[in-house]
Amino acid sequence: HYWDNYGQPAGDWKTLDYDDSAWKIGNAPLGYGNFTKNTTIGYGNNSDNKYSTAYFRKTITLNNWDDMSDFRLTCNVDDGVAIYVNGRELGRLNLPAGNLAFGTYATNANNGIGGEWPVPANYLQEGENVITAEVHQCNASSSDLIFELQLYCKKAIVSDITTATSKVYSVNLTNNFSLKAIYEEGISTINSMDDSSVRVFPTVFDHSIRIENAANQSLRLYDLTGKLYLETVAASDDFQLQPSNLPSGMYLLKVGNAVFKIVRK
What we know:
This protein is an all-beta fold. It has strands at about 1-5, 30, 40, 55-60, 70-80, 80-85, 90-95, 115-120, 125-135, 145-155, 170-175, 175-180, 200, 205, 210, 220-225, 230-235, 240, 250-255, 260-265.
């Protein structure tokens, strides 16, 4: 749900019990301007005097709570964001300290930045939870806004230990989830960071992937059979990769010597 009207929503819009039935609904990424997006939101009638802030809510259900751990939240935003989990602030990015109002502007202009936060277990609960966010522009004439957020966790699936006897091993974990593991020499870690702290996000994507701190490093995108889909070089430390005609599924993105697991929706 999103609120793109003038002014902050009435009431305590960050809480789980808040009635957001009057809010609009759309799929992420949400925003306006030149970014790739699934939902275009409004900013008022004057492109030189856009609304400074947009508001977002997402209700999620967490079942089998005892099997979940290590929750992390990532986002891609232009220009600044504050994120709340069940009404408690988790973190903010490119925003001033203190109370935030509808008219508060982001600290600096940017072309989209990424953030990541660990989510303390006591911020969440079994069953329904709500994640909310407010996205602030840097000024009234800013040309674009974008917002996309993802929540991850570790989830226990199986307790059995199996020894693979070949380089390619497949197993059905549940009725609707299977795993195919491929051993390849020379790749020792997945989603690891090299000395330059390379960052890749979002790891579950629709259209594009942002790669930070990897200027002039080689980029190679493989599927799980080892087929090379894409090979290029990161032109800057803030590089956006937009693979075309890529089927849905899991891939390995090799950035220099670091390897990242990514999923095309």
